[in-house]
Amino acid sequence: MYSQTVLENAQGGISRGLAPSMNDYMHGAGEQVHIVVKRFGLEELPEEEEETHKWLHGRYVEKDRIMGDFFRDRSVPSGGRKVPLPWSSVLPAAVLFTGLNIALWSTETGRKIYFTSAIGGTAFALTYMGLRKVA
Q1: How far is Cα 93 from Cα 90, in angstroms, rounded to an integer?
Q2: pTM
Q3: Do 51 and 27 contact (CB within 8 A), yes or no?
């Protein structure tokens, strides 16, 4: 099991407002994203329901501490590593995604496929969650 905490620097300082959207990042609103990932082995997970509640509460207390430290003094937990994201790794996917969207949206058939899959996918997901009692 993995616990993830995402911390975002806003341009001009730290902000606890709404998280920037992808569009905001594309236009320079966010400078950095810190992702804190902690892995838990199955042997570390409690089996009893009451112990599970306590364990989950402890994870959120830990997340609150990490976020508090970050927003107060810009510190992130030690032991991390910086992973650069060069344009050369992003550009091919962006070009492919853009090209596929242009091809899809430029024809009547493509638009029908898009809307049919969106509506059908939503209906399927809601039905599935209802049957699995997830919702």
Answers
A1: 6
A2: 0.52
A3: no
**E strands of 24-84, at which residues?**
30-39
Per the DSSP assignment, residues forming a β-bridge with 32 are 9
**63, two tokens:** 């997340």
- Tokens coding 101: 């969207």
Residue 54 and residue 43: Cα distance in Å, rounded?
16
Q: Which residue, 20, 1, 21, is CA-closest to 10?
A: 20
Instruction: Give pLDDT tens digits for 15-28.
Output: 556 666 767 766 76
The pair of three-digit structure tokens given for residue 90, joined into one six-digit string: 């992003």
Average pLDDT across the chain, whole number: 83
Q: What is the pLDDT of residue 135?
A: 45
116 three-class SS: helix
The C-alpha torsion from 126 through 121 and 116 to 119, rounded to 10°, is 30
